[in-house]
């Protein structure tokens, strides 16, 4: 049995025995920790994993609480029937808010969540039938069969069963195809979109999941307290939930429970101790708590969980699939894309223009490329080569001109739609997720070659597809010479290896057209030789390659043809020996010839 599994079983045993040995007050405190943990797990998924900051989660807690309070007290519903009703209402509200809010970016996104968080709080306080600031009393207790759950110790088990189920579901989700897509959101969406990830869809997914967990917490809260008023659903509580995720370690699911425990216990401890120390009453615990938060963020910005990980086996390592043919299941190999016949028209750029205000980065560039060809796109720094890549891959739309792929105009498509048509790329500035392992980074590239939804991943019904994707990732890593680094964090590799890692990720997509932006930068001589050999083999397998590179020896001995750019203009096109003798090219690189 793995150390992680033993630690999980020990934690479950402690949870099961806790209410049998602690005081009634401690059980109450543990109930509040469990309720807060549910919301904090959603905050960790939304903020720590997905990179979206929300200050409105307490409003979703209120939706769950008020839905069950109104339906049970005014309409006589069974409390258990109000849970799906609350989840359905929360889904509708969350999707509406997602359409409005998730279009925002930067600091506008958290400000937007503050706006609707405050709005829902005042809605609870002012809508007729919700009891105003007085609230709704007489919420019935939960009942399981004939047994009424009316004590804190009994309710404890119900709360923590939901917490454990949420933790398991979130761990399963993150260890999956959609989970990697969600983790790829943090740090920008360009890379994820280029791998075929529908980033808007997954942003909405994590927003909805976090809202539903908050709703579940509110439903439990209403039947634990049996009274609902607006106070627990204010913006202040939303900030506390976010603090919990940050304290525990926002990118760690278990960190939500750790953070909820630390914050809840610390607040209670400060409320008890401070009045005795300063001989005065007031909200002094808020002041001290704020100072402690500042110190924590200065000393441990990633939270408590990364610190604990040094001493405890908290992270489950990725299950690396075996490549031995006798041990590979028949269904464990991803389907390959049919490649176009050699010589078939593949890519055509027609009079492409891209302006950034008054700057013309690409000016009337035209070239074509046939299947089975390695085409070099070269030029001095600032020539517009990477901008040209972005026009071809849908990162940027051309200001004028057209881009055609196999007879289809694609310049109006998004990156993920172009990726679906068999185009993969690397980036001038490496785009990896440094905290994810090497094999997981490459598996992102295979996103479009497998299927599976969020629910199937949370229930762990996608293991066959998961093994297929990881096996493909390992195959490509072995192919580029990084097979010994499978489980290393991608950010720990030297820059040259990170560039090769990007090549492996692009190959995992099984592309017909591969765009490489300075792949040899930072590589030693032997590594460049190995990369050149790999690209030649890929051409033999039907993969066409568009290459940007500054190492002229590397380029001239590899490519079939060259397109040369300078200051956004196309100054030459031809075979390598023609380009080497072209006066305009020599002048662009050397400043003139005698």
Task: Please explain how this structure is put together.
The radius of gyration is 28 Å and the shape is elongated. The chain is built from 23 helices and 14 strands. The longest helix has 27 residues, at 199-225. The mean pLDDT is 90. The chain has a six-stranded mixed β-sheet with strand order 10-11-12-7-13-14, with helices on both faces. It has a four-stranded antiparallel β-sheet with strand order 6-5-8-9, covered by helices on one side. Strands 1-4 form a two-stranded antiparallel sheet. It starts with a helix and ends with a helix. It is an alpha/beta fold and 594 residues long.
Write the layout of secondary structure elements.
Elements: H1 3-21, H2 24-49, H3 57-74, H4 79-101, H5 108-126, E1 136-137, E2 142-144, E3 147-149, H6 152-174, H7 177-183, H8 190-194, H9 199-225, E4 227-228, H10 235-248, H11 253-278, H12 284-299, H13 304-309, E5 345-356, E6 359-370, E7 374-378, H14 385-392, E8 400-405, E9 408-409, H15 415-420, E10 423-425, H16 438-445, H17 454-458, H18 463-480, H19 495-507, E11 513-517, H20 525-540, E12 544-548, H21 552-556, E13 561-566, E14 569-574, H22 576-580, H23 583-590
Parallel strand pairs: 7-12, 7-13, 10-11, 11-12
Antiparallel strand pairs: 1-4, 2-3, 5-6, 5-8, 8-9, 13-14
Helix pairs in contact: 1-6, 2-6, 2-9, 2-10, 2-11, 3-4, 3-5, 3-9, 4-9, 6-9, 10-11, 11-12, 16-18, 16-19, 18-19
């Amino acid at each position: 049995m793995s150390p992680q599994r033993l630690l999980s079983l020990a934690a479950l045993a402690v949870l099961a025995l806790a209410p049998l040995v602690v005081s009634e007050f401690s059980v109450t405190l543990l109930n509040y920790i469990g309720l807060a943990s549910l919301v904090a797990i959603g905050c960790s998924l939304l903020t720590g994993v997905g990179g979206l900051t929300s200050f409105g989660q307490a409003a979703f807690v209120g939706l769950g609480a008020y839905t069950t309070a109104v339906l049970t007290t005014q309409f006589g519903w069974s409390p258990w029937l109000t849970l799906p009703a609350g989840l359905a209402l929360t889904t509708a509200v969350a999707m509406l808010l997602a359409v409005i809010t998730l279009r925002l970016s930067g600091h506008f996104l958290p400000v937007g969540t503050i706006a609707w968080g405050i709005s829902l709080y005042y809605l609870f306080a002012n809508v007729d039938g919700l009891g105003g600031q007085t609230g709704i009393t007489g919420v019935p207790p939960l009942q399981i069969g004939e047994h009424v759950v009316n004590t804190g110790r009994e309710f404890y088990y119900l709360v923590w069963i939901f917490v454990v189920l949420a933790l398991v579901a979130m761990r399963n989700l993150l260890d999956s195809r959609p989970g990697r897509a969600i983790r790829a959101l943090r740090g920008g969406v360009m890379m994820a979109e280029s791998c075929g990830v529908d980033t808007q869809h997954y942003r909405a997914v994590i927003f909805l999941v976090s809202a539903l967990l908050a709703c579940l917490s509110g439903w439990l809260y209403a039947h634990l307290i049996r009274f609902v008023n607006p106070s627990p659903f204010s913006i202040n509580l939303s900030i506390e939930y976010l603090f919990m995720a940050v304290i525990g370690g926002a990118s760690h699911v278990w960190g939500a429970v750790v953070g909820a425990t630390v914050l809840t216990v610390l607040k209670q401890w400060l409320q008890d101790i401070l009045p005795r120390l300063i001989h005065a009453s007031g909200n002094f615990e808020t002041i001290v708590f704020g100072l402690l938060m500042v110190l924590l963020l200065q000393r441990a910005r990633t939270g408590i969980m990364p610190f604990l990980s040094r001493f405890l086996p908290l992270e489950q390592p990725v299950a690396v699939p075996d490549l031995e043919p006798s041990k590979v299941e028949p269904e464990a190999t991803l389907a390959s894309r049919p490649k176009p016949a050699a010589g078939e028209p593949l890519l055509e750029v027609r009079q492409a223009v891209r302006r950034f205000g008054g700057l013309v980065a690409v000016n009337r560039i035209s070239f074509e490329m046939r299947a089975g060809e390695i085409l070099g796109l070269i030029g001095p720094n600032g020539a517009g080569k990477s901008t040209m890549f972005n026009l071809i891959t849908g990162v940027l739309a051309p200001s004028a001109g057209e881009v055609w792929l196999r007879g289809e105009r694609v310049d109006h498509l998004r990156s993920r739609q172009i990726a679906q048509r068999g185009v993969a790329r690397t980036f001038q500035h490496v785009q990896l997720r440094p905290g994810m392992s090497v094999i997981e980074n490459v598996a992102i590239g295979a996103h479009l070659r497998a299927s599976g939804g969020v629910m199937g991943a949370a229930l762990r019904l996608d293991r066959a597809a998961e093994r297929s994707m990881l096996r493909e990732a390992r195959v490509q890593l072995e192919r580029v010479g990084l097979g010994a680094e499978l489980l290393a964090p991608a950010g720990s590799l030297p820059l040259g290896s990170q560039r090769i890692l990007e090549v492996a990720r692009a190959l995992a997509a099984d592309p017909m057209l591969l765009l490489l932006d300075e792949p040899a930068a930072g590589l030693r001589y032997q590594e460049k030789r190995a990369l050149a050999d790999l690209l030649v083999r890929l051409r033999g397998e039907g993969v066409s390659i568009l290459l940007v590179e500054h190492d002229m020896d590397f380029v001239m001995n590899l490519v079939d043809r060259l397109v040369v750019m300078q200051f956004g203009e196309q100054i030459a096109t031809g075979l390598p020996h023609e380009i080497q003798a072209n006066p305009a090219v020599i002048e662009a690189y050397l400043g003139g010839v005698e």
